[in-house]
């Protein structure tokens, strides 16, 4: 080869390499539908979403660079979820992230083949998946459902914290799964506690306030709160009403303790949302949701808030404090 031809060939190869190196990355767009206010999605103080975006960035999906994130709110009103779902689907995102079963159900009905990454209860009972290992269809994600037995464990911890308690109110919704209430009734019999189930027709501030009035009238000694996501946006109100009623409570999420609640026995929400970010990343890179196993949490943490115990005149037994993964003083 003559020197001139070699030089031209080298320049062409370099130019092609430069063009390839400068080729823009494929840009993706995801939609995130939160159960609470939409501004929580990008709030750095909200642990689950913070973990979600941190994991996406670690995997190379960076908002503002190769990723656009559109936030939506379920607003805590299930009757509006279908409209929100249709709006989101009409914008053709690459992946829809759905928080809670009611939101996921609405999105699932509207989405067609759009991939969905969801967090919620039992996916098989909800009709989202054929199995945990191989969901099939267009939905995968994370279940917080650890079996109905965990509710008996929570009630037992509440009894250990308040040995004199003989009646506990179970704040739940009509959308929640029946096995949880049944497990609490059975656990209550073993612990010599009666459990009064109070299912809300809707998760609104007014309905929650009415429920607490009934809890007080029934002279309950303590409260256990359901894990359904549509109650979570009202956690501050629930915690304040529990404190006002001078009722010890155990919660299913750490968020309630951070809002001033007494204690929570829950899976690590940061881990769950990191797993969801991994699912989103896999789907954006060509994986099918139906082939991605649904993640089940294996570790649960007990968080105790001693600051909330003081106004209640409550002293935690040393044995229960010793089992706490985190004690807030």
What does this structure look like?
It contains twelve helices and twelve strands. It is α/β, with parallel strands linked by helices and 329 residues long. It has two domains: 142 residues, Response regulator (Rossmann fold); 148 residues, Rossmann fold (3-Layer(aba) Sandwich), CATH 3.40.50. The strands form two sheets. The chain has a seven-stranded mixed β-sheet with strand order 7-6-8-9-10-11-12, sandwiched between helices. The chain has a five-stranded parallel β-sheet with strand order 2-1-3-4-5, with helices on both faces. Strand 6, helix 6 and strand 7 form a beta-alpha-beta unit. The longest helix has 20 residues. It is elongated and about 60 Å long. The N and C termini lie far apart (79 Å). About 5% of the residues have low confidence.
Give short descriptive properties of this protein:
329 residues; Rossmann fold; alpha/beta; 19% strand; seven-stranded mixed sheet
Structure summary:
With 329 residues, this protein is α/β, with parallel strands linked by helices. 41% of the residues lie in helices and 19% in strands. It is elongated, with a radius of gyration of 24 Å.
The CATH architecture name of the largest domain reads 3-Layer(aba) Sandwich
The helix content is 40-55%
> How many strand elements?
12
Q: What's the domain count?
A: 2
Put simply, the count of helices is 12
Mean pLDDT: 88
- Give the biggest beta sheet: 7 strands, mixed
Task: Report how far the terminal alpha carbons are from each other.
Answer: 79 Å
General form: elongated
Beta percentage is 15-25%
Q: Which segments are poorly predicted (pLDDT under 50) over 5 or more consecutive residues? A: 6-16, 18-23
Counting helices, strands and paired strands, the structural category is alpha/beta
CATH class of the largest domain: Alpha Beta
The CATH superfamily of the largest domain is known as Response regulator
